[in-house]
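User: Need the bound-state model for S-adenosylmethionine:
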Amino acid sequence: MAGRTRQYELIAPVYDLVSGEWPVYRPGRLAGIAGLRLRPGSRLLVVGCGTGLDLRPVHERVGDGGRFVGLDASRQMLARAGRRPAARGWPGVTLVQGDATAPPSGRLLEALGGDGADAVLCTYALSLIDDWPAAWRAAVALGRPGARVAVVDMQPAQRGPRPARALARLAMWSGGADPAARPWRAVEEHCTDVDRWDLRGGHVQVRAGTLPG
Ligand SMILES: C[S@@+](CC[C@H](N)C(=O)[O-])C[C@H]1O[C@@H](n2cnc3c(N)ncnc32)[C@H](O)[C@@H]1O
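Assistant: Bound-state model below.
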């Protein structure tokens, strides 16, 4: 098991409390989900889904007829996701343990159905995967032609008070994120109709775009 995955196995029980979701990261998550332009019944692949903080806002858009297929390397993070009320009451949720840089498992392909995902979401995950371009390629290969894809991720803050910028750096360091990764570049390079959000003094970057048809 890779070092960062082991780290997430250990912090899974307290992740929601210590991740800074409500004070810092929630608006980026909601922006990325909005950028996917989900509809009732949409099938969504979530790479590095963690404890499933995306579940409720996605369910509000896709409804019980939609699908949430979450992939994560950490069993403990997935276990937390599976306990969320949105996951328990929603028949369209499948949580799959696996490495996002590896070829997709049969379970993942089956959960997405033969046509692939209508949308792909990566929230605060790619920047802590060493070979994030491989994870990006694997993820978009699972999207149908013309799927929407959103990357929500972090870099050091460029604006704002010095203590806030220091906290942003600390959050990246403690979470194992590479401050130089800037994985949203992939959306800018490979997609059309790109929506952009620059939040929290530039610390949180969101890009959502359309894959080639
Ligand atoms: C910072 S957490 C973000 C979790 C969730 N997306 C969120 O927004 O709260 C990063 C997640 O990426 C997962 N992860 C790290 N490397 C991975 C890999 N190679 N394949 C799949 N998941 C991975 C970790 O287990 C962890 O759950």
